[in-house]
Amino acid sequence: MPFMISLFTAKSGNSIASRCREDEATRLRLRYKPYYHTFDRQIGTHVWLGGTEMIMLSSNDYLGLTHHPKVIEAAQRGLAEWGTSTTGARLSNGSRSYHQQLEEKLAAFLGKEACHISVAGYISCMSAIQAFAQKGDVVFGDKNLHSSIWAGIGLTQAKAERFAHNNPADLRELLGYESPETPKIVAFEGVYSMEGHVAPILEILAVTAEHNCFHVMDDAHGFGVLGQHGRGTANHFGVTDKIDLIAGSFSKALASTGGFVAGSREVIEYLRSHSKQTIFSAALAPAQAYAASAALDLLQSEPEHLRRLWENTKRYKQILHDLKLDTWGSETPAVPIVLGTKERAYRFWQHLMDRGVFTVMSIAPAVPPGKDLVRTAISACHTDEDLSKIGDAMAFAARRL
Ligand code: PMP
Fold first, then answer.
1. For ligand 1, is residue 145 a contact (CB within 6 Å)?
2. Which of 58, 191, 249 most suits a substitution to test ligand 1, by most atoms within 8 Å of the C-beta?
3. For residues 267 and 138, what is the distance between their CA atoms, to the nearest angstrom?
4. At what angle do helices 286-301 and 304-322 cross, to 10 degrees?
5. Which of 147, 190, 192, 384 has the fewest Cβ atoms within 10 Å of its own Cβ atom?
6. CB atoms near residue 340 (< 10 Å)
């Protein structure tokens, strides 16, 4: 045995270091090199990669507000008034009036009593589960939920059950196995980030009504995109009061970074003192909060961005439909193009790159087997000229599949 260990270490270094070279995800990353591209410059939907100008077709800047003059001016004001960082947690010395103002504004916009903001949507989604689920509880999560919710579940001692994606009948069956006394959380996304699917919320609520569940919805991709003035997926279905917690991100329609969880005052106050992610981590920086706040105002004062987003989405989907590309039934501006194998996804992605369109490849195990895809997203900022160039690039890539 000692001989085997010394052979192994002589060849590969220690086992953690060798894992970093040899695991499946690393081998795929090194083979295809589709990730961690670094842009030298950006103007709206145009980015420069190694000096080459490209159209960005995978960012989540849905409303195109990252370069809006009012958002930039607000972020600069945040910096001028408060400096660069809070350098402290909300619980201790990091709370500022601009946090509170943004929370109140967001809660009112969403139609909830209270809201808690944090440094990232990932953190907010984690805390929406971690702060509440305990040993003896069961968390039922849609199989295709974002990593942030699974990470939150992983930090608790609750039992996790996965139900088939957007399948309330499967959820009903799983709920039926648990005793009526067991506290239950049901977690789903308003809009699924990879698939662009909208959750069948009315059907989910019909199923959970019999089981006294606590509902957590990650609406990172529905917020700013669906509902009145972009109030999100719960507003779209008219069920805001039925969803206990709505979590989301500032890094998509709100053109900033940060995240939120909104709910009843009592539940949000509980989260403030039970979310480890908040208690032990510094508060949102001023420029980010000011940018999100300005973007939130724009959702209401300039509805043309949301209109343009949907017009662009319609036109883009028509292009893909005419080329007979499989968009996995996406109903939103998050649009996957399913190619079915790693090789086809890679070829398609590379052809788009060659034609000046930047997208992101997502391959198994990040997506279910047979669903290897190129993930795209439309922005209100895409011009007619952008869309026709995107159309030409798609036709070029589709012909060469
Ligand atoms: N939830 C979903 C569904 C997401 O797509 C993302 C970001 N990709 C997050 C949460 C995390 O948001 P953030 O980027 O603000 O951390």
1. no
2. 249
3. 18
4. 80
5. 384
6. 14
Give the pLDDT confidence score for residue 14 in this predicted structure. 84
Please tell me whether residues 258 and 309 are part of one structural domain: no
Same domain? For 243 and 195 the reply is yes
**For ligand 1, atom 15: residue with the closest CA:** 121
Report the pLDDT value the prediction gives residue 19, as an integer from 0 to 100.
Answer: 83
Mean pLDDT by 10 residues, the chain (401 residues): 45 78 77 87 95 97 98 98 97 97 98 98 98 98 96 98 98 97 98 97 96 97 98 98 98 98 98 95 98 98 98 98 98 98 94 97 88 97 98 98 90
8 domain-assigned: no
Among residues 283, 301, 319, the one where a domain terminates is 301
Q: Is the CB of 148 under 6 A from ligand 1?
A: yes
| DSSP codes joined into one string, 159-191 | EEEEE-TT-HHHHHHHHHTS-TTS-EEEEEESB
| Residue 33: per-residue pLDDT | 81
Query: Last residue of a domain, which of 278, 301, 324?
Result: 301
**Residue 123 forms part of a structural domain:** yes
Q: Are 326 and 317 in contact (CB under 8 A)?
A: no
Q: Is 252 found in the same domain as 328?
A: no
Same structural domain, 95 and 212: yes
CA of 288 to the centre of ligand 1 (A): 16
Range of the domain at 329: 26-56+303-399
- Same structural domain, 241 and 274: yes
Count: domains in the chain: 2
**Ligand 1 centre from 86 Cα, in Å?**
23
pTM exceeding the 0.85 threshold for the entire prediction: yes
Residue 9 has what pLDDT?
Answer: 47
Coil vs helix vs strand at 34: coil
Q: What CATH number corresponds to the domain at position 362?
A: 3.90.1150.10
Q: Is the distance from the beta carbon of residue 120 to the nearest atom of ligand 1 less than 6 Å?
A: yes
- Cβ–ligand 1 distance for 332 under 6 Å, the answer no
**What is the 123 CA–ligand 1 centroid distance (Å)?**
9
Short-list 59, 37, 69, 56, CA closest to 383 = 56
Tell me, using a 6 A CB cutoff, whether residue 327 lines ligand 1.
Answer: no
> Is the beta carbon of 189 within 6 A of some atom in ligand 1?
yes
Q: Is 259 in the pocket of ligand 1 (CB under 6 A)?
A: yes
Q: Report the nearest-CA residue for atom 8 of ligand 1.
A: 193
User: Does 340 lie in the same domain as 192?
Assistant: no
